[in-house]
Amino acid sequence: MPGASAKNISRVLSLSASPDGFLLEAHPKLRPVDSFNDGVFVAGMAQGPKDIPDTVAQAKAAAAGAMALMGKGKISIEPYYSVVDEEKCAGCQVCISVCPYNAITLNERGVSEVNPAICKGCGTCTSTCPSGAIASQHYTDGQIAAMITEYLSSIE
Ligand code: SF4
Ligand code: SF4
Q: By the number of CB atoms within 10 A of the CB, which of 79, 109, 127, 136 ranks highest?
């Protein structure tokens, strides 16, 4: 059984969990101690039942992963994150409630603001904003429409 605090940890750190409540790694073979949330690692019984040697090995891998990140001193992020048009934003906070990564906050001007370092560019906020105030960089409606138009013209 997962620990009693697993659910709370998963909620606070925006981590995915399996249906039985254990925290999920990003990939069982290629990224066994990474979570889907960059900079957060999963190891030991939080991820599932395992013996002590496996737990120790995973913990060391997680520590090495964290050290590798910090050792760089500088983090590069993907350019695919959402941005808010402050002129259109009504401050309704719908986007804040749906963002699975807690990447959006309401700023001092009463409008939403996306933290690019946390945003994963999933697009959930852009599809739910009633004011059309959020757009995913490089995937705006205009850019997608242009791609569709171009594709359709190429197959005519
Ligand atoms: S859902 Fe849209 S209008 Fe509402 S706070 Fe977010 S960006 Fe602003
Ligand atoms: S694109 Fe996804 S992760 Fe980024 S702010 Fe919107 S809902 Fe959150």
A: 136
